[in-house]
């Protein structure tokens, strides 16, 4: 916890933010006086290559927990059951299709912020906008119309952060994102997809080349590659992402390859 103790004391002026990578697509984000944790996988497991950066029971002072979809490494139910008590004032943001399973974690409906494609919600000092995600497939419940996986645009303290969750590109996605520009920081999965993984029900995401092109077309002030460190058989080389980005788009989109628990600063 010592490596991240400063997050609760970070002093940020308007237009500034700090992010700490917690592995996979997990980040702790400080926007003004708001502390956000998104897609943090904090439960120990044998198949992890990276131990939890902060033990779940030690993570306190969080205002907003966000999950992009109901996979263990994105909505960690064991940890959410802990955080509802250790962070008693925190709200929980997640796709509306998962409201039942989130409630089964013991989280009161009054603390839930269920999201759907195109919906924007104000949560304290930040706003969250949801965009449908195509986690290999652009699934949608035919009755409710809800998508099981979402991407989020998070705005607060004069900063806009795009967290893509787990997604492939699909028709219309770029237009949705362009309507929400400018984007200060984009966090994109790069692990890709293939037949070998799909045969064992490991559904995939953008390849690093597809993520590079999305970053190049959106033009954020900063891009961070994610989803490459946690599982040996579902990984990618972040340096390949950065090299291709630099060759194809020059210095138009700066890239930071994150280091666990090390701060990434925006506007500082």
Structural class: alpha/beta
Termini separation: 23 Å
Amount of beta strand: 15-25%
- Which residues sit in consecutive blocks of at least 5 with pLDDT less than 50? none
In this structure, how is the largest beta sheet organized?
7 strands, mixed
Number of helices: 6
Order of strands in the sheet with most strands: 6-5-4-3-2-1-13
- Rg over CA atoms: 17 Å
Classify the helix fraction into a percent range: 10-25%
Please tally the β strands and state the result.
13
Roughly what is the average pLDDT, rounded to an integer? Answer: 95
Please tell me what the overall shape is.
globular
Question: Any overview of this molecule?
Answer:
By secondary structure, the protein is α/β, with parallel strands linked by helices. It has six helices and 13 strands. The chain has helices at 77-86, 99-103, 173-178, 195-199, 208-218, 238-249, and strands at residues 17-21, 27-31, 34-38, 64-66, 91-95, 112-115, 120-123, 126-132, 150-156, 159-163, 185-189, 222-226, 263-266. A seven-stranded mixed sheet has the order 6-5-4-3-2-1-13, with no helix packed on it. α1 (77-86) links the parallel β4 and β5 (91-95). α5 crosses α6 (238-249).
